[in-house]
């Protein structure tokens, strides 16, 4: 029938493992970039919402790329930090 040598099987298995490793290395940073992008969009939306609703109670929230990145990277503590910086300084 078929005569496949063991070195071919071993090299095939090694190739699959290397392909899996390269794919994993490419996918992990993409997940982090997408997570950071999603959180930045959520941060800018929360700043816009707080800016429109906060004017009634005296909280000023200016939405710019820097504040969106801080809010996106740090989450809710970042939102509090941006509000403190904008209202105290």
Structural class designation: mainly alpha
Radius of gyration (CA) equals 24 Å
Work out the helix count: 3
The largest pleated sheet is described as: none
Q: Any idea how many domains? A: 1
How much of the sequence lies in strands comes to under 5%
SSE order, as H and E? HHH
State the end-to-end distance. 81 Å
- Give the tally of β-strands: 0
Low-confidence stretches: none
Q: Globular, elongated, flat, extended or rod-shaped: what is the shape?
A: rod-shaped
Q: What is the helix fraction of residues, given as a range?
A: over 70%
Describe this structure in words.
The chain has helices at residues 6-54, 65-74, 76-88. The protein is mainly α and 89 residues long. It has one domain. It is rod-shaped, with a radius of gyration of 24 Å.
Outline of the structure:
This protein is mostly helical. Helix content is 81%, strand content 0%. Helix 1 crosses helix 2 and helix 2 packs antiparallel against helix 3 (76-88).
Write the layout of secondary structure elements.
Blueprint: H1 6-54, H2 65-74, H3 76-88
Helix pairs in contact: 1-2, 2-3
Structural descriptors:
89 residues, mainly alpha
């Amino acid at each position: 029938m078929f005569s496949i040598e063991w070195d071919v099987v071993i090299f095939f298995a090694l190739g699959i493992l290397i392909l899996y490793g390269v794919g994993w290395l490419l996918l992990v940073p993409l997940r982090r970039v997408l997570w950071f992008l999603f959180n930045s969009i959520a941060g800018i939306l929360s700043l816009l919402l707080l800016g429109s609703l906060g004017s009634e109670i005296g909280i000023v929230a200016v939405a710019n790329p820097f504040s969106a990145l801080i809010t996106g990277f740090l989450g809710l503590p970042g939102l509090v930090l941006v509000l403190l910086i904008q209202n105290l300084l």
